[in-house]
Amino acid sequence: MSLIFLKIRPWESRCFAKTSHSLEKGDLVIVESEEGTNSAIVEKVITEEKKPGNCAEVKLVRKANLRDVNLVKSNREKEAEAVKICRDEVRKSDLPMKIVGASYSFDGGMVSFAFIADGRIDFRELVKTLSKKFQRSIRLHQVGARDEARSSGGYGICGRELCCIRFSDDLPSITSDMAKSQQIVHRGSERISGLCGRLMCCLAYEAGQYQKMLEKMPEIRQEIKTKEGKGIVKKMNALTETVFVELENGNRIEVKIKDV
After folding, report:
1. 123 and 92 housed in the same domain
2. How many domains does the chain contain in total?
């Protein structure tokens, strides 16, 4: 028995299913979930039993056959036009939202749209309008900027594929405390932000290590004793385990933590 991690829609989190079938990354499969039958792409296959974390479980129906593939291809070809139509209606309604993607259900009976907005949006009239235009059930799903980047794809300044794509659900929430603990806030938001405009996912990689190093460091503006007298901590370097101290006489010195 293997675990397969799947992606139904580009902007959604991964889900998983248990199977005894031989599947590979990139395979198209048909799954059953709470919202019905959908196609999904296999992102990872794990032969060992492993806890899937917060992923939702779905039921694997079958590996896609030729008929399934043609049906999914037909649906995908209609999605670009669906996005255009939805954006036109959003513009007419003057709604403060950005449509970033569309996805037809496997049977074509429902169209899901992903959008970005700063707050809550009353899109009930939009749903009614789209239902009439498409003659199908309409689902609007609000996503974050990271979800849009994951859906669109791309490469970071490191030259590698975006972390939100490569590691998907393995990444924790990225917080400003991570940037503070690594002492890079002074670089400016434009230098520590990713393509999505949010803090870079890679800030999470060494956050734990920096936090442990900072536990034995004094705080900024804390008074400490050095061999040259008392002083106030003005700056610190967690990697070198040194602090920059302003002494009572106005001089500034760099001191190793072990010497404090």
Report:
1. yes
2. 4
The whole domain housing 227 covers: 223-259
Q: Are residues 86 and 56 in the same domain?
A: no
Structural domain includes residue 184: yes
| Sheet with 223-226, edge to edge strand ranges | 223-226, 229-237, 242-247, 252-256
Q: Please name the residue that has the structure tokens 């028995």.
A: 1
Residue 235 to residue 228: CA distance in whole angstroms: 17
The H helix count followed by the E strand count for the chain is 6, 13
pLDDT digits (tens, 9 = 90+) for 21-69: 889 899 999 999 888 899 999 988 887 666 666 678 899 999 999 999 9
**DSSP β-ladder status, 110-116 and 137-142:** parallel
**pLDDT < 70 positions in the chain:** 48-54, 147-152, 167-172
- Name the CA radius of gyration of the chain, rounded: 25
> Residue holding tokens 């610190």?
236
**Do both 135 and 100 map to the same domain?**
yes
Reported as type and span, the H/E element at residue 179 is: helix 176-181
- Dist CA 172 CA 86 (whole Å): 32
Report the alpha-carbon distance of residue 101 to residue 98 in Å, rounded: 9
The answer to the question of residue 152 being in a domain is no
Give me the CATH number covering residue 89. 3.30.300
Nearest Cα residue to 2 out of 45, 58, 35: 45
